[in-house]
Amino acid sequence: MLSNERVKYTDKEILEKGSRALIKGLGYSGFLRFIRHFEGRSKEDYLELEKEIFKDMSVDEIYDGAKEYWENKD
After folding, report:
1. 62: containing domain
2. FRET partner for 13 with CA separation of 20 to 30 A, picked from 24, 50, 55, 63?
3. C-alpha to C-alpha distance for 70 and 53, rounded to whole angstroms
4. Quick check: is 69 in a domain?
5. How do residues 42-72 score in pLDDT, each as one tens digit?
6. Structural domains in the chain (count)
7. Would the pTM of this model clear 0.85, i.e. be above it?
8. 40-68 burial, b for 16+ CB within 10 Å, e for fewer?
């Protein structure tokens, strides 16, 4: 079993880090499509999940992140 005992994240931190990794790799629209794919498999409300993921981000931060992604896309 793989384990990294030096780094222990809270569930919120895992959600945030995982979301940011997916956004970096897939872009915002790809990330949202990924989340939608699992909507039916989870009892979580997608809109509530979206609120949690982006709650500390302003519209400008989301825009800047998307702009940076598209400018640096391979």
Report:
1. 43-74
2. 63
3. 20
4. yes
5. 566 767 877 887 888 888 988 888 888 888 8
6. 1
7. no
8. eeeeeeeeebeeebeeeeeeeeeeebeee
